[in-house]
Amino acid sequence: MSSDILQKSSIFSVNVSKSNAFNFLRLACCLIVIYEHCVVLSGVNFPCYDLRGIAVNVFFILSGFWVTQSFLKSTSIKEYAIKRFKKILPQYWLVVLGFVVGLSAFSVLPLREYFCNGSFYKYLAANIFTLNFIQPNLPGVFEGLALNGSVNGSLWTIKIEVGFYILLPLIVFAVKKLHEKFNGGGGYSCIVLIALYLLSVLYEVLMPLVTEKTSLPSALNNQLPAFISYFAGGMFFAFYSEKLFPKLKIAFLPCLALLVLLNVFKIPFVSALLVPICLAICVMFLGLNLKIFSDIGRKTDYSYSLYLVHYPLAMCFVSLGVFEKMPGFAIFAVLGTSFLCAYLLESFQQKIFGIRRNAEAAK
Question: What is the pLDDT of residues 285-313, one digit of tens each?
């Protein structure tokens, strides 16, 4: 299957100025996640507004936008798959392996017992395949700490991302077929995205009711179908940018006001239906118009690396009692060590694969 027809069709062309703030938005959301994880994991009496969920959803919207572009610019599924592999998995695997070894120093078990424990190998196998929920703990590590001592609670989103990458070619194929069938009728080709969006909303609303009344695990509530609406929000703009970008100025303020209201009142079905598309509109508007921040992350975007490493680093500082004694310093220490690790990871990425992570490279 090729994306040639989509590439040649003007309705699917995407022209984004290099003077954009998408990397800034991604980094800002990452810093929100880091800060709130520090507060939640340590229990310090610092303000926390539960914005990390919104921040993660912004990641998904941006992935829907940029990764769709990456696919449309690829000449084959193989090229697309290789690009995705190089962008995501090497750093992910390096982080998993690095902390598996490094956190042996934080285990209450002797080294021999730690490395021979069945939970060690179960953790390694589950996390290598992005299935963090199967085994989130390492033997004797972070015992008695928040969230049952989960080593890296941020990794659950990676399997969501990978799932979207796998699903994306099928979505594009379906959109392309409708586009061909109706002789370039964009109004018909977007039916695929609308259907996926609505099905995702239904899943998000109904699955918690199902898991609550049955023996099914609550982890099903936060799987890929629940977040497809956010990816689809980004995909709408990747496919139909020429029609949608000019309307952003009109839609931004109403959507922002609606987001605030829905965040305050949290009406289950209405929120699930309207939040993803309203958030996508706000993200795209800010990304295109906050040009003052366009230089941030232009050369290298560290947000993905920061996201991968910050959680276990925060847990280390909690375990050492730094948050209890100097909470403000501890947060800056987590940020500092996270940036150092992110720099090393990105340097590794560029040296081994020659890839520099930034928005202009069409993630």
Answer: 999 999 999 999 888 899 999 999 999 99
First-last CA distance in the chain: 20
Query: Is 184 in contact with 11 (CB distance < 8 Å)?
Result: yes
Q: Are 69 and 362 in contact (CB under 8 A)?
A: yes
| Amino acid identity at 113 | E
| 292 DSSP 8-state letter | G
Token code pair at residue 273: 């239906």
CA atoms within 13 A on the CB side of 138: 28
For residue 141, what are the β-bridge partners?
Answer: 107
Task: For residue 69, give both structure tokens.
Answer: 């572009």
CA atoms of 267 and 131, how far apart (whole Å): 31
CA angle, 61 as apex, 55 and 65 as ends, to 5°? 145
* Full-model pTM: 0.92
Residue 186 has pLDDT above 80, yes or no: no
Give the whole-angstrom CA distance, residue 260 versus residue 32. Answer: 17
DSSP-assigned letter for residue 141: B
Residue 45: what residue type? N
DSSP E strand stretches across the chain: none
**192 bridge partner residues:** none
Q: Rounded to whole angstroms, how far apart are CA atoms 58 and 64?
A: 10
